[in-house]
Every structure is written in structure tokens, then in C-alpha cells.
Amino acid sequence: MIGDRSFGLVCLEMALLLLAGPLVTGTIQKIKARLQCRTGADLLQPYRDLAKLFRKDSVQADTASGFFRSIPVLVLAATVTAGALVPVIRVGPPALPLGDAILLLGLLALARFLTAIGALDAGGAFGGMGASREMTIAPLVEPVLMMVVFSTAVAAGTTELGALAAHRGTEWLLAWRAADFLGFAAMLMLLPAETGRIPVDNPDTHLELTMLHEGMLLEHSGPGLGCMLLASHTRQMVTLALVSALFFPAGPAGTGAASLLLGVGTSAAKILVLAIFLALVESSYAKLRLFRVPQYLGIGFVCALVALALRIL
Amino acid sequence: MALATLVASDETTTPDADLKVRYIFEPTAPGAPDQFVTLLVSVDPARAEVPSLTAGIPAANWHEREMRDLFGIVPLGHPDPRPLVVHDGWPQGVFPLRKSFDGSRRVSIEPAEEFPHLAATGEGVFEIPVGPIHAGIIEPGHFRFTSVGETVLHLDARLFYTHRGLEKRMEGLSPLDAFSIAERICGVCSLAHGLGYCEALEHIAGIDVPPRARLIRSIALELERLYNHVGDIGNMCAGASFHYGTATGLRLKEALQQMNERLAGNRFLRGLVIPGGVRLDLSNDVARDLNTTLEHTLAGLDGLMGRIEANPSIVDRLDDTGILSYQAARDLAVAGVAARASGIDRDARRDHPHGAFADRAPLDFHVVTASAGDAMARMTVRALEARESIRLIGELIRRLEPGSLQTILTDPLPGGRIGISAIESPRGAAVHWLRTDSHGRVDRYHLRSPSYHNWPAVALAGQTAIVPDFPLVNKSFELCYSCTDR
């Protein structure tokens, strides 16, 4: 489907997702700190961490193969490319065909797969453990994500996210049907799993034995670790943008600079709301026992399945 | 009877000219008198062997291995031939606690094979080595898990990376000088260890500590328990990734440690207790300050425990995690919170009264126990004990009467005597054993910290949990490495 979102706009959106990713992480960290009666680090701290890592040399395990070095770049590339497929500033299909939601989920799955391969390649115990856990959780998360996307795609008749968002743009919250509510509920349950946060994973822990995503990053260092962290920030941003594109796609029409700024403002507001939601969840709950995670994700699965069934029937 | 401690000593320079092994037992029945029973075995230095008791008394396991490493006394028939205290490359036949070994000498390290960890084997079984260097700022210890998937089959803990030879260092010093070393064996048990050493020393000197000093000592001991317990509850929340609990625990602990500094000039309460009494008085101003701080702590603790108990996500993590059975706790002579959470009614404050607990007008205090033996039980016991400590401190402050702070000790101390004491430190009973030589100097000092008996229990409880729950199990015991390694 060919629309009026120009290639330049798509690139701008992609760059926004990449550059603002660390800021969203910083915001979540700051809100969490305030909720724990701490001052917390500055909002820009994730940028400083990245700058520090990109200045450093990297160290590699003797057991790692040559492929290990290229993993971080590939993971980052896959995640950033996925970012090109979500509408951020304006809804509507892009001017040239890029790919649809299935490709987006595929790229995110590819990034996850590469991360796990890298963790196994280094040969450390924690990397293998993190990879095995991540690969246990992933098959529970990805199908649910697919079903949520399909449940809205069925109504819109397209899987292209820009067009899908444009179609939904006409139905606002009051026009939501049961399937929308169920799909949104499933999405909210998935968000912490997809962004590696409590109650599924704990991004702040130093306890190697409990790690999921962080465990897979332990063997990376310097610029490689920087790429992996930047990919995590971007992945979180892409997921949040996907949620707003699927459920709250309101954005200004028009082409002027003013409407562009307004578009940036509204999507920032939507992402901020979702970030606050994540911070609240992280501060209110403990991490789930590992074997309880499938039960938790199972609820999301049921919601998504019912949403899809309601759409089709 | 349970094994309280096992002390080997080199007495070849005394008229006896032998090595001695003392197996020290204590009665465990509730209401049993305050006593220790010592079984003394004289060992010929030319044939340094004793029969091993480990098969019958599992608590003797580490003691006997330590005796073999440091004294060269071989426990015949011991099931575990691996060294415990000395690590890879320590030369054969060099026994550091023998009098003939010069502690200031460096030994040459020999090339060594990899340490034979006890591991399960089979299809799909893999090993996870953890430590001794960890990602967080904690003490060193190596944990070797063998697991199938996330299920732990066996856990082998290797410690003694912080062995500093402190017991050897204290030998030959005046007992009054050696006190500073005893107080520094560990950070978070500084006061309990200092106090235990002082009680053993005062036992040798045969002096009584003035009542006011005894009260201040007990107040400080309860303060140490309080800041540890509150901090440990927060740490357990960190193990379960419950951020609110972690932050609150840290905040309450910090306020208590700042109180410690105002009271003793030291966040770890070091330098407050000295042999013969206490160095600093508790003025009325400080007592008022203390009461205010404790009120805030109690309110904060009640709030935190209320949040934890009302939050199913954290309760689910703690319930049934890392179960230590009553029988296992008895066999290993587990001490302190871990023992009481498994239903063992033991508390050295009642069983071996010390400080103000030895007063003629006994303090009415309640020994908290629970029966489940899981992480939740250990957290609940800590919370209840912390509340009990706050109440006890208030009661102790009310009992303060003007009086002297210190009994002057004669230096040198009487020669050839033995002092023993058991102090309920935050982690459980610590048994101090001190012997003076004919000139009244330290001939042998031994500390059996509660952590020493509890570490094997952590490995046992860890085997009932899955791999990602081990940090939580470990934090629910919250043991010291330094106290164990010495």
C-alpha cells in the first residue's frame, strides 16, 4: 500500500526512536527512584553510560568465535530497522513499501535470536543460562504479540502498521469494542516481558543467577556492550511505539512544520504515559518466580486469543 | 547436646607436650543450665590422628577439616578428604596453627590441580560456577551448582577466600591488645564479636563488669541486631527484586547506622565495648535521641512488613523457598535466625546469658520461633526479633542507673586459664574460646561464628530451590564470609 508518508519522514521517525530510546529508559529509572524515595540518577544518565562504553576498548572471551564481535552490530541493526516500520509522528502508509507488522515482529525476533546466539557463543555459564531462559519466554511472548497485532489487523484489513493506524485513527476510545479492550489488556501484560522488566525480568539486578536479558549481555564489553544496550533501549521504544500505533494512533494531519512538531509532542506524551505505567508496575511488584512466568503470560495469551476470535467470528 | 565448637590447640611447648582437641558441647533442652561440656583429647604430635565424629555428628564436618588443614591432625574416617581452609597450591605438610610455624613467613605456593568439586553427573547435567568474584559488592565465595535445567541437583560452596590468619595473629599478644583484632574479624558483627571476646577474657580475669556497663553492652548488642535485621529484610527484598522493600530496608538501616555513629562514634559500634566494661557512657541526650530513632524505625518496619505481607507477588517468592528442615537444622547445629525459623528454640541470650541478660532481675524477653523453615519464616522471625529488640532497648534504657563504666583489669592476666563465652550475635550464637599461656598472653583463640555452622545449611536449603531463587535463599540466611574465614 503506497501512502503519503515520505521516505524522509520515515527516516526521521526511525532516528527519533533510536535517539530518544535512552531518554525513555532514563525517565523510567527516574520515576522508579522517586517512587522508592531516592533522588535517582539524572535523566540523561543512559546517554552518559553509552558514551562511556563507546570510548572503551572491548575484551572478548578466548572461547568466543569471530562471529561474536559482529553480534552487537547485527542486533542493533535489526532493532533499528524494525523501528522504521512503526508510524510515530504521522499515521498512514509510507510513500514506498517497507514492510508490515509481521516483518517488524520478525526483526525483533531476529535480534533476540542473535543475542541468544552471542551469549551461547561466548561459552560462559551465565550467558547460556540467560539464553535458555530468554528462549523459554520468547515462544510465549511472540505468538501473543502476533495475535494482538492480527486482532487489530483483521478489522483494518491490512498488516501495514501505518495504514492500520490510519484506519483505527477514526475509531477513538469510546468506539472500542470488547476485542480492543482484550487486545490492549494482553499488550499491557506483554509490555514488561518484551522490555525485560519486572515482573518477568529485572534490568537493575547484579545477581547473575536471576538474570534473563542481562545474563546474555555479560560477555559483551566496550562498544559491543554499548550497541547491545542501545539496542535494548531502542527495542523498548519500538515496542512502546507499536502499542501506541495499535491502540492510540491519534496524530495530526497536515504537512507543515507545526503539525510535525505536534506529532512529535503527541507521540512523546503517549510514550511517557506507557513509561509511567512500566515504572509503576516495576515499583509495585516483585519479580515472578521463573516457573510462574508462563502462567502470567498465559493470561495474556487467553486475552489475545479471545480478542482475535471475537474479530473473526 | 549439640556440638558448640571444636578447638584444636598446639600445646607442645607446655609440660603436656601434646596437641589437644577439645570437643565442646552444649545442652539444647529448653531451660537447660548455662554450661558447656568439654571432651578433651590429647593427641601425640608424632601420630596426629583422631577418629572422625562427622558420620555421627554432621556439625563436626567443617571443624574436623579445618583441624586437618591448620594443625595437621587427621580425622580418621572423615568422608571428605578435600582441604577446607587452605586453598590450591598451599604446600603439603605446612600447618599454620602449629606453634612451629612462623606467621610472618611467606610460604611458597606450589602448582596445583583444579579443586575437585563435588558434582552430580548424568545426561543433561551441567555445572554453573559462580564466584568467587561477584557482580555486586559482596564478599568472595565460590558456589558450584550442578543442575538439570533450572533444578539444582547439588550445590558445593567453597569459602575461606578471606582467611586472614587472625587467630594466629592474636597468639602471643596481650589479651587486651588482641581485643582490637577480635573486634575487627567482621564488620557487621563487630560489636557481638568484641563483646564475646571481652566476656571470655573477663571469665579468665575473674572480674565482674559494673551493672551500668552491662546494660550499655546489651543496648549496643540489640542495636547491632536491629540494624542487621532491618537491613537483611531489605536485602531479601532485593533477592526477590522487590524494589520498594529494598529501598525501605536500606533507608531504615542507614538511619540506625547514623544513630550508631552518634552513640559510639562508629557506624559499626566499634570501640564502644572494651575489656572490663564500656568506653563511652550513654547520656540522657543520646538516650532520648535513641528513643526517637527507634520510634521511627518501628513505624517504618511495621509499614514495610505490612506492604510485604499484603503483596502476593513477594509472598509467593518467599513461601516454600529454600526450606531447611528441623532435622537438618539440628544435625548441622544451625544457629540464630535460621535455626529459630526451622523450629529450634535456641537463643544464647537466654541459654548462655550475657550482658544485662545475666542480671539478677531477668529481662522478660520472648524467643521468636517459626516452623516452616522457608525464606518467609526467616523474614518473619527477623521482623519479630527486630520489634522485640526495639522493646528490649527501651526496657534496658529505663533500667539504667548511675554507676561506673569499667572494672580495671590487671595486666598481665592470669596464665594458663581458659575462658569461653557464647554471644547471640545478629546471625546467631558465636562461641569464643580463649586460652592464656603461662605469661598471661593469648596462647590460642578460636571463634566459631554462627555463619560457620550455617553455611552448610545454605547449601542444603539451596538444593530445594531452583537456580534463579538461590540468591534469595542465600539472602534469607544472610551469612558472613569474614566471620567464617577469619
How would you sum up this structure in a few lines?
The complex is a heterodimer of chains A (313) and B (486). Chain A is mostly helical and 313 residues long. Chain A has 11 helices and no strands.
What does this molecule look like?
The complex is a heterodimer of chains A (313) and B (486). Chain A is mostly helical and 313 residues long. Chain A has one domain (7-312). Chain A has helices at 7-35, 45-55, 67-83, 101-122, 125-156, 161-168, 178-194, 213-217, 222-247, 257-284, 293-312. Chain B folds into two domains: 1-103, NADH:ubiquinone oxidoreductase Nqo5 subunit (Beta Polymerase, domain 2), CATH 3.30.460; 166-485, Orthogonal Bundle (Cytochrome-c3 Hydrogenase, chain B). In chain B, the strands form five sheets. Chain B has a three-stranded antiparallel beta sheet, covered by helices on one side. Chain B has a three-stranded antiparallel beta sheet with strand order 6-7-8. Chain B starts with a strand and ends with a helix. Chain B has 15 helices and 13 strands. The interface between A and B is medium-sized, with 31 and 34 residues.
What are its keywords?
heterodimer; A: 313 residues; mainly alpha; globular; B: 486 residues; alpha+beta; Beta Polymerase, domain 2; Cytochrome-c3 Hydrogenase, chain B; 2 domains; three-stranded antiparallel β-sheet; 13 strands; 16% strand
